[in-house]
Amino acid sequence: MIVYLNGAFLPPEEACISPLDRGFLFGDGIYEVIPSYQGRFFLLDEHVERLRRSLREIRMPDPQPEQGWESLLERLLELNPGGDRSVYLQVTRGAAPRDHAFPTRMAATVFAMVSSIAPPLADLPDRGVAAISLPDQRWGRCDIKSVALLPNVLARQQAVEQGAVEAVLLRDGMLTEGAASNVFVVHGDAVVTPPLGPEILPGITRRFLLDALRAEGWDCREEPLPESVLRSADEIWLTSSTKELLPVTALDRRPVGEGRPGRVWGHALDVFRRARDLAISNAGTRAKS
Ligand SMILES: Cc1ncc(COP(=O)(O)O)c(C=O)c1O
């Protein structure tokens, strides 16, 4: 494996970061996870745009010139060839004597590495996954993709200890999102997901799925979702760049709908995959021309 650190491509054991790095000391940084299929990125522009937005929101100057992120990420993928991969990219406010306020002179730390995207469980279409619900104990700016993920880590650990793959979070009786995913609910004829705002991450997969379904004439709503609607949902789905679109078939050990992946999920996954393959091949054609 070859990773990227501050301008160099090198083996991970040679990549050294200072213990004074503000990412380590304060969680003062942001990140992205960008999926690729057979060597081609999916929605790279959208991920780079969200990365730039996160940097602006934490008041960090962008350390890369125009197109710099794209070339760095493409190069890293070339150096780590193989099937379906995701790139983890982290940018922190760099190393400086420990003080909460920003250092006056600062050089960002930029790190990126590649991981395999785990193949979907072979029996997933029959079984789906289990989730638990928990109070959302995160801060008021969950729209920023911050590396400070302690509440998410604790929530996901609780899910795993209860045999589930994800924790879905509730704030003041309303669904927000998963510990590392957005959530969709099918209720009667409606496909609903919570609206954007400071309580949730503007998921790239969420946006792409909404656009793909709407383009095929589906009625998808972005509306607040009370806990009662979550609990009486016919179907619940999780979306993320590495999970794509996962059906939740048990919530807090109770079956969701009929306790197996729903019919609507099957159709939505077809629409998603077709749109995904088209987007990847269009981006490839654009890059060549
Ligand atoms: C808290 C949270 N919400 C939503 C998502 C899904 O976002 P995306 O579809 O951009 O991967 C993630 C992804 O890791 C996440 O961590």
Keywords:
globular, binds pyridoxal-5'-phosphate, 6-stranded antiparallel sheet, 2 domains, alpha+beta, D-amino Acid Aminotransferase, Chain A, domain 2, 289 residues, D-amino Acid Aminotransferase, Chain A, domain 1, single chain, 9-stranded mixed sheet
Describe this structure in words.
The structure is a single chain. This protein is α+β, with helices and mostly antiparallel strands and 289 residues long. It has two domains: 114 residues, Aminotransferase class 4, branched-chain amino acid transferase, N-terminal domain (D-amino Acid Aminotransferase, Chain A, domain 1, 2-Layer Sandwich); 154 residues, D-amino Acid Aminotransferase, subunit A, domain 2 (D-amino Acid Aminotransferase, Chain A, domain 2, Alpha-Beta Barrel). The chain is built from eight helices and 15 strands. Strands 7, 8, 9, 10, 11, 12, 13, 14 and 15 form a nine-stranded mixed β-sheet that branches. A six-stranded antiparallel β-sheet has the order 2-1-6-5-3-4. α6 crosses α8. The radius of gyration is 19 Å and the shape is globular. The site of pyridoxal-5'-phosphate has 13 residues, from α6 and β13.
